[in-house]
Amino acid sequence: MEKRLQEAQLYKEEGNQRYREGKYRDAVSRYHRALLQLRCLDPSLPSPIPNLGPQGPALTPEQENVLHTTQTDCYNNLAACLLQMEPVNYERVREYSQKVLERQPDNAKALYRAGVAFFHLQDYDQARHYLMAAVNRQPKGE
Length: 142
Hints:
Blueprint: H1 2-20, H2 24-39, H3 61-84, H4 90-103, H5 108-120, H6 124-137
TPR repeats: 108-141
InterPro entries: AIP/AIPL1/TTC9, TPR-like_helical_dom_sf, TPR_rpt
Keywords: Repeat, TPR repeat
């Protein structure tokens, strides 16, 4: 269990490095690998094989925090990558941003990315809602 958490964090860091290098497709691949490492550990997801013992390993509160933080970071970073790639898949940007916002409703980056996605999906009311929320949560001076 601890090994999977560490592997996921390593993949996330590799994804961050690829993003900084402008290698967005490689970054996306690393973030997806990180999420796959975490999938079987997430107690909020149903077991892929029902009625086969416990739903998954028991996580300490610290491990669960690492799991959720890493998942949230990966989804946020995936949305950032997709906005840099042509053609932009705005449906996915919206989906990933909303996954972040489920856990972190005040995440300014996710609010902004959701707003951009809704704008390009021509849902202007939602775009305005998310973009205004992003502006209100943006740290002063940025």
